Amino acid sequence: MTAAELSNVFMLPGLAKADKAKSRDRWTDAVMDRGHSIVPTILLWGQAKLGLSPDELNVLLHLIGHWWYGGNDPHPSKETIAGRMKKHPRTVQAYLTSLEKKGFIRRFERFRANKGQDSNGYDLSGLVKKLIEIAPEFKKVAEQNRLRRARVERPAG
Prior knowledge:
Elements: H1 3-10, H2 17-27, H3 29-32, H4 41-45, H5 47-50, H6 54-64, H7 78-85, H8 89-101, E1 106-112, E2 116-123, H9 125-153
Antiparallel strand pairs: 1-2
Helix pairs in contact: 6-8, 7-8
């Protein structure tokens, strides 16, 4: 996959005003005012196909929740994720290691000027690439289901 293709994937447009209103209709202002994340449905539907444990998926969702703009990799601390999941930071570190070995993320060190090491950054392009790879299978099934419905819905004769 070329850098241009990945940049097209990462550059997510903001929600249109009408879409924001629809989200607020479903979730309420009190919930939406705290923010939202875009999570591709294929990540949820493809969890088993991708070989993601529930805890690995949970960690990915936390990383996605910090990925606000294309080109700006998320960088929550493992302590932050661990606290939210009620897990030990070393347990979260093990999930991150597993996700890295499976090719979903790439960790990189971050440093503050004159202050030393900061929390790691996480490149999610591996996750995006894996979702792109399985997307045609889900598209094919959706098309087969659409055709099956059309055959059933047609009047006989």
